[in-house]
Design a protein that fits this description.
It is a single chain. The protein has 392 residues and is of the alpha/beta class. It has three domains: 159 residues, P-loop containing nucleotide triphosphate hydrolases (Rossmann fold, 3-Layer(aba) Sandwich); 86 residues, Rossmann fold (3-Layer(aba) Sandwich); 113 residues, 3-Layer(aba) Sandwich (Rossmann fold). Helix content is 33%, strand content 19%. It has 13 helices and 14 strands. A six-stranded mixed sheet has the order 2-3-1-4-5-6, with helices on both faces. Strands 8-7-9-10 form a four-stranded parallel sheet, sandwiched between helices. Strands 12-11-13-14 form a four-stranded parallel sheet. β2 and β3 form a beta hairpin. The longest helix is centred in the N-terminal third of the chain and has 15 residues.
Length: 392
Amino acid sequence: MTMNATPSGNRTHIGIFGRRNAGKSSLINALTGQKLAIVSDIKGTTTDPVSKAMELLPLGPVVLTDTPGLDDEGELGAKRVEKALQALRKSDIALLVTDAAEGLDASDRALLERIRAMQLPYLVVYNKCDRADCPVEDAQHSACVSALTGRGIHELKERIAHLTHEGGEKRLLADLLSPGDAVVLVVPVDEAAPKGRLILPQQQALRDVLDAHAIAVVCQDTELRRTLDGLGRKPRMVVTDSQAFASVSRDTPRDIPMTSFSILMARYKGYLDSALRAMPAVESLQDGDTVLIAEGCTHHRQCNDIGTVKIPRWLRAHSGKDIAIKTCSGAEFPDDLSEFRLVIHCGGCMLNEREVLYRMHEAERQGVPFINYGLLIAHMQGILERATEVLQ
């Protein structure tokens, strides 16, 4: 996968925050060497978060997000500030930009408190240092630049790169494989399958198998039994779309490990253990309970859509209860989850890890169990233990 093809969910998300006219848009243009953001002396030019995926050396593939001013005013301004704060929860790195001549004000300090509470890597960027001295309060977390002249921009890039977390790259399943292992990827092609392409978790799994110097065998669920019979050896595992769990479980011998793309995504995004602890909530649903089904992407929904049709139908049939269903998608996720008895999330392939974990932690903080599609389907099929044992 080339840098330009790196999915948004696998990029480092850098949020640019600050007051109106602090120079946030100018800083993005200086960091990228491109005129990506509109620059104006008029306050409030940026009215919505604007994201751009690109490669930022020496860091690599990133998403830069320019946000509305934290000091925006009025009813509409308050909504813009709310959008900026929503962008914060998906940021891997926060840059708080302020005018060097003005320093930090109350809105800046309030955001700093929030950033520190989130334990989010950050820098306070004092912009326009060509016009004023930088009133640095914390040298470890501060940088002085001029987006106009380019002063300090190279050094800022280097410091941003060092803010990323240390440690090895996380893998979807390559760490479960040895060179030469065979992995069967089951990819149903039905009315829900995108025309002419594979969905992101399937692409990512395929690349991960190749990176592990293992052997990927791809088939539809209707050809799985024939594929296994023709392999001539036992594969390391079978990975399936969760919707095909019933037939894949039936056609895969018990001594061959089996899981799903969605369950692998729960592990990859870092919430598998938490979701497994939350699974008993499925059996405690009662008449009148409301369940939130959340998806990280927006897509054209088919007549038999997984989130709005299949899972509600399966869940009501499994529980035997009259359950109310609400849905959300894309960047929207309720701040107040008190009305929900359970949150069922998609795999989260289009969201970065920080955003998915934010949603999980918010659910936990408000006492609402948080699980995902694959785990729920496996549980309802009675194969949850089997579908997760290869990951333990």
